[in-house]
Amino acid sequence: MQDSMEQPQWEGAVNARRVLGKVFRMGRSEWLTTTGWQQAYADGVRTVIDLRNPEERQRRHTDPRVDDAAKAGIAIVNCPTEEPGHPEFERLAVPYMNHPRMYPENLAFFPGRIVAVFQQIAKGQGKVVLHCSAGRDRTGLIVSMLLELAGRQDLLEPHYEAALRGINDWHRISSYKHPHESYLEEQDLIGPLTERLAALDEFMGALNVERFLLEHGLSTAELEEIRARLA
Predict the structure, then answer these.
(1) Are 117 and 14 in contact (CB under 8 A)?
(2) Of 5, 56, 93, 211, which is least surrounded by CB within 10 A?
(3) pLDDT tens digit string along 76-132?
(4) Closest among 110, 71, 154 to 118, alpha carbons compared
(5) What is the pLDDT of residues 169-190, one digit of tens each?
(6) What average pLDDT does the chain have?
(7) Cβ–Cβ < 8 Å for 27, 170
(8) How many whole angstroms separate alpha carbon 117 and alpha carbon 103?
C-alpha cells in the first residue's frame, strides 16, 4: 500500500502529495509541465478538481508552456469553495482564505459549494487531484474533512504542516514574487505553524463532517463512494 503524504513524481508539481487511496493534493496546476501532466496521467490521474475562483485560473509569465494535448484524458473541473465577491466573507478572509481559523466561516457561508466539491470527488474518474493556489488552505479544508471521514485524524496535523512547509519552501526558490507571502526562516515559521495547527484542531474538534455533508445535500451513496476512494 502506498502511504499518505507520498510525493508523486510529476514534473513541476508544487506541494503535491497523496492524501489517501486515490486522492491527491497539490498547488496550482499551472506549475505542471507537459511532462508533469503526462506523468500524472500515467499514474492514473483522470480528474483534477480546481478549488480556486475563476479569475485565479490563469497562466503566470513564470509558468511553463504546456502542450494542451498532454491534458487529454484528464477532466479538469472548476469547483470553487467560496463565492467570489461575497462581502461578509471577504471582510473576514483578509487578504484571502489563508488560515484554518477561517474554515468555520467558509462552511457557514458556502455549505453548498463545499458539498459540490465532495460530489465531484465522488463521481471523479480514476485518481483525483485536489488543488487551489498554494495547496494549503482551501485544499487543506477539503483534505481535513476527507481525513476525518476516513477516520485518519492522526494525519490532520502532519498534512497541514507539510502543506505549509511545502509552499514556504516554494517561496524560497520561486521567481514569481507573491503579493502577500514570502519565504519564512524556520524561527519565523514555528509561531504561525503552531497557531494554525491549534486553529485546525479547534475547527475539526467541533465538526461532524459526515453530518455536515449529509445535511447539506450529499447523498449516502456519494459518501460511501468517497470513503471507497480513500480506502
Answers:
(1) no
(2) 211
(3) 999 999 999 999 999 999 999 999 999 999 999 999 999 999 999 999 999 999 999
(4) 110
(5) 999 999 999 999 999 999 999 9
(6) 97
(7) yes
(8) 15
d(CA 164, CA 168): 6
Closest CA to 127 of 1, 38, 42, 12: 42
Q: Which pTM value belongs to this model?
A: 0.97
217-229 burial, b if ≥16 CB within 10 A, otherwise e? ebeeebbebbbeb
Percent pLDDT > 90 in the chain is 98
Q: What is the Cα–Cα distance from 129 to 40, expressed in whole angstroms?
A: 9
As a whole number of angstroms, the distance between CA 203 and CA 219 comes to 23
Asked whether the predicted pLDDT for residue 1 surpasses 70, the reply is no
2 — pLDDT class (breaks 50, 70, 90): low
The C-alpha cell 508544487 sits at 14
Rg (CA), the chain: 17
What does 30-99 look like in DSSP terms, one character per residue? GG--HHHHHHHHHTTEEEEEE-S-GGG----TTSPP--GGGGTT-EEEE--SS-TT-HHHHHHSSSSS-S
Contact yes or no for 33/66 (Cβ under 8 A): yes
Q: Smallest Cα–Cα separation from 163: which of 24, 12, 40? A: 24
